[in-house]
Amino acid sequence: MMHIIGSLFDHRKAVTCLAFAVDGISLVSGSEDVMARVWDSKTHNIIRIFKHAKGLQQSRLAITEMLPKTIWNTIAW
Fold it and tell me: Which positions does the entry assign to WD repeats (predicted)?
């Protein structure tokens, strides 16, 4: 059973994609406001903001030693 544990507010337009990282803490949201935000899901604080030229439809988050947070738009590829 799923239940709401909190809300994240900061996007100015509709959120079009949302993904958890494998660490279970970082959450990435992409929006029609052409911004991607990386959140700490426990504190609900924004960790980082990225601007995308065309907006985001899908997001992927990779956690590696060299690139702690990587976001890309798979449709643009």
Answer: 8-49
| Nearest CA-CA partner of 69 in 25, 30, 26 | 26
Three-state DSSP class for 39? Answer: strand
- 65, amino acid identity: E
Query: Is the per-residue pLDDT at 72 higher than 60?
Result: no
Angle at CA of residue 76, ends 44 and 65, nearest 5°: 50
CB 41 within 8 A of CB 31: no
For residue range 2-56, what is the model confidence (pLDDT) as tens digits?
787 777 888 888 888 888 877 788 888 888 888 888 899 889 999 988 887 665 5
